From TrEMBL:
One of its GO terms (cellular component) is membrane. This is Putative DMT superfamily transporter inner membrane protein. The keyword Transmembrane helix applies. It is a multi-pass membrane protein.
Length: 287
């Protein structure tokens, strides 16, 4: 149970990113916010536990690019262009994208009922992005692409032998932050000075949403599996919607609420189906 509770903190913290951007970081470049989120967090962890990366440099770089250097800018583009509730729901398509990724990459065909639920979730995404909702297409594409990167990286992390999750997190954030610096300079130029009122947001997304959450995310994939961790990501839109409404004052249309409900329903039914299958397997008498 403790492993699942720790895993549940990850999407809740990540769901708060959108509100942190709206409340504290809306005047900063999304690319430089990505740098300030990743690099200080990684360097802090390396100071606490210095040492070589726990994976070969090639694998370490791949994880750093997919989980940090490419993911963070896309995430913040989505956060700047979309209501947090919408961005969080699109991010919660991780189980659907992971299922598709396992089918395409590993040849693991989804069960028919899981495929039906995935189609229900996709229909919900269409409702969220319907033309009358005036959803920014660049922000939506950024959110879905960012989630696809995490899905691919999750499969790598599941398969690659890693024993030191703390150092893995430290190096991912450090390498990812370093790779982001030239990209931020090319796209945005030199960074703006950070104002005092922006510091709480940067501290939140760097220390809690990066240092702690990425350690807990990597640990949870190893402890409870990539599929279960992906299912728990449904808490991301719950946190994003709740914080967006109460802290930022976001207002959604009826079609968007229906779409969010459909995505959440598909994910809840996936979890129920998986838990039921696990109970059946446990209770099945051995021959």
């Amino acid at each position: 149970m403790a492993n699942y509770l720790l895993a549940a903190l990850v999407p809740i913290l990540w769901g708060s990113t959108y509100s942190a951007v709206s409340l504290f970081l809306h005047d900063l470049s999304p690319f430089w916010v990505a740098v300030w989120r990743a690099l200080p967090a990684g360097l802090l962890l390396l100071l606490l536990k210095p040492g070589r990366p726990p994976l070969a440099w090639s694998k370490m770089t791949l994880l750093s690019v997919f989980n940090i250097a490419a993911f963070f800018p896309l995430l913040f583009i989505a956060a700047y262009r979309l209501p947090g509730s919408v961005a969080g729901t699109l991010g919660a398509t991780l189980p659907l994208q992971l299922m598709l990724m396992q089918w395409l990459v590993e040849g693991k065909r989804p069960q028919l009922k899981m495929l039906v639920l995935a189609m229900l979730g996709f229909a919900g995404i269409v409702m969220i992005l319907n033309p009358s909702a005036d959803i920014d297409p660049i922000g939506a594409a950024a959110a879905l692409t960012a989630t696809a990167l995490v899905a691919r990286a999750s499969l790598w992390l599941k398969d690659w032998p890693v024993t030191d999750i703390f150092r893995l997190t430290a190096w991912q954030l450090t390498l990812g932050g370093l790779l982001l610096i030239p990209l931020a300079f090319i796209v945005e130029g030199a960074p703006k000075p950070i104002a005092t009122h922006e510091l709480p947001g940067l501290v939140w997304v760097s220390l809690l949403n990066s240092s702690f959450a990425y350690w807990a995310f990597s640990r949870s994939i190893k402890k409870i599996g990539a599929d279960s961790m992906a299912m728990i990501s449904m808490l991301n839109p719950v946190a994003a919607v709740t914080l967006g409404i109460f802290l930022v004052g976001e207002v959604l249309g009826s079609y968007q609420w229906l779409g969010i409900a459909m995505v959440m329903m598909s994910l809840m039914l996936m979890i129920y189906s998986k838990q039921r299958a696990q109970r059946t397997l446990t209770l099945k008498p051995s021959l």
